[in-house]
Write a structure and sequence with these properties.
The chain is of the alpha+beta class and about 110 residues long. About 35% of the residues lie in helices and about 30% in strands.
Length: about 110
């Protein structure tokens, strides 16, 4: 399916927000703003990414797109870690999930 999101597209979208840097932890690429991770790639496997959302936003996305988003396991999931199935997500949906995650972790202007 030509519309399936690729890790490269996920990376490009994540890096498209202001002041984002790419790092890595536990052998996964991660995307940070203000030193805080808001998204990762390749977790739990190559077919997935993850966005860290406020729990209420996570609940809305999981409800609206159950084939695309799922809470992470255990405490991480309860804190907003949200698994994204790359093959199932469209660009607009991923872009808005990444934006919520990015905005949530961005340093608040003093």
């Amino acid at each position: 399916d030509l519309d399936a999101m690729t890790p490269a597209q996920f990376r490009r979208l994540a890096l498209g927000f202001p002041k984002v840097s790419e790092g890595a932890h536990m052998n996964h690429p991660d995307f940070r703003v203000g030193g805080k991770i808001f998204a990762t790639l390749g977790y739990p496997d190559r077919e997935h990414g993850m966005v860290i959302l406020p729990p209420e936003e996570q609940a809305q996305l999981v409800r609206a797109h159950p084939k695309v988003f799922a809470p992470g396991k255990g405490a991480w999931g309860k804190k907003g870690c949200t698994i994204v199935r790359l093959e199932a997500v469209d660009k607009g949906t991923l872009q808005s999930a990444l934006e919520i995650a990015w905005r949530n972790k961005s340093p608040k202007e003093q």
